Amino acid sequence: MAEKKSFYITTTLPYVNAEPHIGFAMEIIHADIVARWKKLQGYEVFFNTGTDEHGQKVYKAALAEGKDPQKYTDELAEKFKGLKTLLGLLDNLHFIRTTEERHKKAAQEMWKRCEAAGDIYKKDYTIKYCVGCELEKTDSEIENGHCLIHPNLELEIRQEENYFFRFSKYAPKLLELYKKNTDLVIPDFRLNEIKALIERGLEDFSISRLKEKMPWGVEVPGDSKHVMYVWFDALVSYISTLGWPEDKENFEEFWVNGTPTQYAGKDQVRQQAAMWQAMLVSANLPNTHQIAIHGFINYEGQKMSKSLGNVISPQEIVDKFGSEALRYFVAREFNQFEDTDISMEKLRESFNSNLANGLGNLTSRVVTLCEKYDVRALESDFEAAKKHPEVDHFLEKYEIKKAMDWIWSLVKRVDVGISTIITMKLLENNTDDAKRELKTYLNNLIEISSKLLPFMPETSRKIEDIIRIGKKPSHLFERIDA
Q: In angstroms, rounded to a whole number, what is the distance separating the alpha carbons of residues 192 and 175?
């Protein structure tokens, strides 16, 4: 009997102070691709996402709309749940909300364990606070009196009594963790970034807020005057979704033995790679296995912002190009680890060149020629195409774009072959050689279809169905001219 293999992957939990945007769609599609790839390798996969529903930003957004915070978060959570269908995500996607009772209990248990370890204490303090980040800011993170990430927001000066986590205590242990697991954070320059931050010195961070000032949060165990600071609460979602601490079997399978992997944006390196890892050590729980950090998406040279009115929703792109095209854009056209600048015109050009005129036209030409010359695929051809060493090589390192580039290099090679070699042999009336050559290219198309399965599952299945039927297909992707 084969040994059971388990794999856990999670996105961050986006705030529900606004509707889903293309940046989070990129993150969850990346995670979905990895989850599908692991399933194809025979792993039992736990794929998690959800919504972060506490904190000041959410509370203020709810009040601004004149709604009760719970009602407000209920409405927006449904829109994030809708991404599963919109983006063609795995059916067994798990979804955790930080307002669920199971999560609140887990967050309180985490607090108790950190407190028992001597890592939680109370003090008065004054900070420069960015509401956009829901974080206090040090001088190195401030420029011209504003947060580097949210330069349009005024920093708040806060003075109050809060609970703190002894983050400074964990600098040596974090550096040792990074030394032991040199691939903990990818790409490597993000790991170097967090190591440099720690080497400059860590400060303890606040983990509570006075309920009388900000009541929307998980109550601190043993102190009803405080609610948990949103980051302490939200990070626990990565294990509360597994049923921790009650469901020991699930936690053991997927977190302890399932090489837990996190996807996050470049603005969360500190939270994911340092704060959360320190909390896990404090609670005597295993650390994350790997954290993949992606860049931001800009629109026409500008950072996307609600105030600028240039925020692009995944729904807009799906309405124009389709969900499979969006998955293609994210996987191949977007820079994975750096920032990406997009525009609707850039996406349209890519769609026409690589999908309509590229993959779609190639599929039509190969199958049409096979139908004409009675070249058929065998079941053994489909079985032989299920091994993907080249794609596996890149996905082992979460290099999704490189994997897709390799697949498209095969698309282009087959396209050139159909255009030259086959045509030449047919002109020479060398039909037998042409048929043998054509069978090679048909097998290449089967290989392309199989390799695309984690990236563009619907397209992959359509191509396979077309080949099995052996009839000229309707267009996979209709050209878009405006």
A: 11
